[in-house]
Amino acid sequence: MANSSLRPSPFKWISGLILTLLLVQFLMAFRLLCLPSALSFLPQSLNLACDPDLYPFMSYAMYSYPKYSGQKLAEHQLFGTWTDGTEVPITEKEIGIDLYKFKKAYMKPIREQNPEAIASLLALYRQKNNQQLTQLVLKSYPVTITKSGIRQRPMETKIIPIQ
Q: Which residue, 78, 92, 74, is CA-closest to 128?
């Protein structure tokens, strides 16, 4: 009779799979497989997996703040105008940074018309895209949360001249 202790048990395989999945989620949550843009001088081969390469393992915040009836929210989009009059979207991908940093370092301060943030964004955009911007246009798409659903309000546009 063969010794059954030499055969791998299904529980060991399942435990190993669960442990592997938890490890991958941990690595993605703390962005240990995707180097930040501050380390861009390192070889790209060190970037093993950035979002969404290992979907469904993502570096997203699992919990967000609750939204209540009557609360007003807005989605903001930033556009720039080139010297020839062409209006182009300015996104985190256009300037080569991650979404969180783009929203925190640029979108919020630009909504408040912070001159240092505007100057920093313009310099970064010029460096990455080799284009000069003459103005920034901030478009807001506001909504109100109601008990019957989401109600859209009229779009708001704010033109931010560049000195």
A: 92
CB 76 within 8 A of CB 140: yes
Q: Distance between CA atoms of 91 and 7, rounded to whole angstroms?
A: 54
Q: How far apart (Å, rounded) are the C-alpha atoms in residues 104 and 95? A: 14
Q: DSSP letter at 19?
A: H
Q: What secondary structure does DSSP assign to 78-126, as a single string?
A: EEEEETTS-EEEE-HHHHT--HHHHIIIIIHHHHTT-HHHHHHHHHHHH
Q: Which two tokens stand for residue 142?
A: 């506001």
> Alpha-carbon distance 155 to 109, whole Å?
20
Is pTM beyond 0.70? Reply is no
Closest CA to 94 of 58, 150, 134, 133: 133
Residue type, 126: R
- The least confident of 11-25, 53-67, 149-163 is 53-67
Segment 148-160 shows an average pLDDT of 90
Tokens found for residue 3:
């010794």
